Amino acid sequence: MNEAAPRADDADQTAFQQRLGALNLGALWVGRRGVDLSQPKSPAAPALWRYGDIRPSLEEAGRLIRAEEAFRRVLVMENPAFPGEMRATQTLYAGLQLVLPGEIAPCHRHSQTAFRFVLEGEGAFTSVDGERAWMRRGDFIVTPCWSWHDHANESDGPVVWLDVLDTPLVGFLDTVFRESHDRPRQTIDRPDGMSPARFGAGMLPVGYEGSRGASPVFSYPYGRSRAALAALARSTPPDACHGLKMAYVNPATGGPATPTMGACLQLLPAGFDGADYRATDSAVYAAVEGRGRVRIGDETIEWGPNDVFVVPGWRRHALAADEDAVLFSVSERPVHEALGLWREERFDRQG
Ligand SMILES: [Fe+2]
Description:
The chain is α+β, with helices and mostly antiparallel strands and about 350 residues long. The protein has helices at about 10-20, 30, 50-65, 65-70, 165-170, 195-200, 220-235, 335-340, and strands at about 45-50, 75, 95-100, 105-110, 115-120, 125-130, 130-135, 140-145, 150-155, 160-165, 180, 220, 245, 260-270, 270-275, 275-280, 285-290, 290-295, 300-305, 310, 315-320, 325-330, 345. The structure holds fe (ii) ion (FE2).
């Protein structure tokens, strides 16, 4: 040790840090001491919400409050690591929304992007910027950032869907804006099916200015998505980690459905026993068909139809199913990719 530069003793260090604090400064060598930054360690926990456990509470909420009063009658899925914070992962909000016959969830818009995945019922619709998308089980509906939207149920039974929003991420960025419409329901000025016709047939209107924003196809009916998976399964061997997995895309860009969130549908064929995998993005899954399990680290979660579970980012996990099973999933992967941060690691078994 150079005698000209003796080490400060602990008391000197502490006094120095206190003086720094008064100047709104911190010492990097103190704040980072002992912190392992070699790879991500999401504080989110693996989590499961069984539909059968939640459904009675949803019914009770239906008796306690009307959709118009609640504005949105949603039971929010809170990650056990973040109680009271209304988020399923670090970046994503998830909840189950119930709209009873004759009810309206009033019109508004906000800077958060919302995904809907219909779990139960038929005969409700979501209106997005003047066009209705009718909702059936398994349909995936996008409400892009800052688009007017309201929901209504014109059937004689309850309709339930999974909402996934980028609310925690948008909040972290201090970019939350919200506005209520002056009427509960917006004016419908485009015929039903207009967006799928214009953008969903593998064609685009000539002169359409491709947008880097959300997909102009805001409704992806389950029948078509499921048929695509089935056709893929007939012609392609399953991926060792993912089975047969397809992403919902923005047809104008070929990229994800929205800039902040992407969604996928995947088929795990009967007997699928997936290899371990991890990626930086965290995902919210909804089981659509069949039963299966996911092993996340030392924990195994068994899931069945309409159950929702979370796989935190960079957590080694593996999917398996004894019968044909279909999973819908949402993650913030588009943000990771746009920022050059996305990574994945596969642990394929060697033959
Ligand atoms: Fe909303």
